[in-house]
């Protein structure tokens, strides 16, 4: 017999099934500091071993979502990688301040809780956590008919890392003459999708078409997950090779790199130093978007920027070359001009 709660649109049994199914996936992300498993009222993570290695331990946290990229995933019914985007948007921010990632929590709000769909989403979150060096220690699923339509859902994530206060990355370390090393993005990542969707609608683009310059269909290009930079960058943080980092999200290079530039200096970027990926050219042409606006909204092919002293550049590039990490030297830090970040046209 169907309960009144189910008639109202909430299926408790489906929620229990989903939790049961994801326990094994979640446990595969755990390190030795995770105490217990899913099912408690709060997640427990022991810090004894982490704190003992640091002189002045500082916890660094970040929270974010995926934004309207979710609408494309829902429309295409492709949910396998959207969880990677969720983790990346939080983990890359925490990493950019010099933190060792510790643990992650997620929140999933749905119009209708389908265990198979939830399993697919959580597998992506777990995959992102493994790429980011994070333990997925807890989360929340909420079935909310009336807030969300049946197929709709939303994601939020919360990442926590740890660093030594004396070795934090940031603008306080940046000096005139420092060089900017841009690490390639995997595509659009998870920013600017309101403009992406407007371009698709206004230009009547076919999501299943492979447009000129692209290797895959438009929808597959747009759902390519955000790159996680932990494995490439954390060895450089441990070695003390970096002055600062900037995760390039909404606002593009100028806004995000500007957070890392002191008031007396300017980051001078050479836009000809890297090849802009084809997906941005397709969007710019179809939407008749100016280059200035493209740069303001999108990463344009650079997902993370390392700020490095000239004395450390060779050390950094050797590590990146050995990893086969794609990068470009995209500019330098100079005495302050009109803006904290400028393009060298």
Automatic annotation (TrEMBL):
Main location: cytoplasm
GO molecular function: ATP binding; phosphoribosylamine-glycine ligase activity; phosphoribosylformylglycinamidine cyclo-ligase activity
Domain PurM-like N-terminal: 58-163
Domain PurM-like C-terminal residue range list: 175-339
SUPFAM superfamilies xref list: PurM C-terminal domain-like, PurM N-terminal domain-like
Record keywords, A-Z: ATP-binding, Cytoplasm, Ligase, Nucleotide-binding, Purine biosynthesis
Subcellular location: Cytoplasm
GO biological process: 'de novo' IMP biosynthetic process; adenine biosynthetic process
Pathways per UniProt: Purine metabolism; IMP biosynthesis via de novo pathway; 5-amino-1-(5-phospho-D-ribosyl)imidazole from N(2)-formyl-N(1)-(5-phospho-D-ribosyl)glycinamide: step 2/2
Top EC category: ligase
Cellular component terms per the entry's GO annotation: cytosol
Record field: catalytic activity: 2-formamido-N(1)-(5-O-phospho-beta-D-ribosyl)acetamidine + ATP = 5-amino-1-(5-phospho-beta-D-ribosyl)imidazole + ADP + phosphate + H(+)
Entry's EC annotation: 6.3.3.1
Family affiliation: Belongs to the AIR synthase family.
Entry protein name: Phosphoribosylformylglycinamidine cyclo-ligase
